[in-house]
Structure prediction request, 239 residues.
Amino acid sequence: MQYSVPVLDRMDLLTQEWEQQADQRSAFLRCYALMTGNTLRAIDQSQFHDPRWVAQLLHHFADYYFLALDAYEQNDARTPAVWRLAFDAAAQQQTQILQDLLLGINAHINYDLVLTLVDMLEPEWATLSPEQRSQRYEDHCHVNTIIAATVDSVQDQVVTPDSRWMGVVDWALGPLDEHMAALLIRRWREEVWQQAVQMLATTDPDERADLRRLLAAQSVERSEQILARRVDRMVGELL
Prediction:
């Protein structure tokens, strides 16, 4: 797996350290590592139109997570609000494991991924043909299939081993099951693509800044719903 070593090694080492310390941030990072590993395998198997571009995106995407983590641990005021909320919740150890997972997934998809896509697409967007733009979108969507196939592994390796698993879904997350979780992430990632395209079409710096502030506010609002155990509202979007 030619692309795997640096990013997966860092994830695995940090996850092991956090698990030994009973640090609840390990839940999301273990999940993230599983999905990253499966995506890297798909890249090696040439499942994408442009495997090299997807690999670059994957690593740039991971950079956003580690930059947020480093900023948080240095008590940097520039830590994105949605990540500060997720890391604070894990530190307080008053959340259930599925809440920790969703807080991380929300921050990384609904905030980081929009910015990652803009970073990756902006240098080339104006020169891409409609077919090439469509292929970029199709590569983005193919990751949804990989995520859906990873959900069972996340339950087996991340959720089920936790002693708090029994009753968590009914107590904390309502009707969210494996199928609904995959659908929710798919819906989020579709919104993310549309938000990235909107940013790419916005050339005015003030308007771009407004879109970024709105993005941050929306991601924080979703995290607040997760903390308030109102995931039923998110699932309702799918029905």
About this structure: The radius of gyration is 17 Å. Residues 35 and 150 are 6 Å apart (CA to CA).
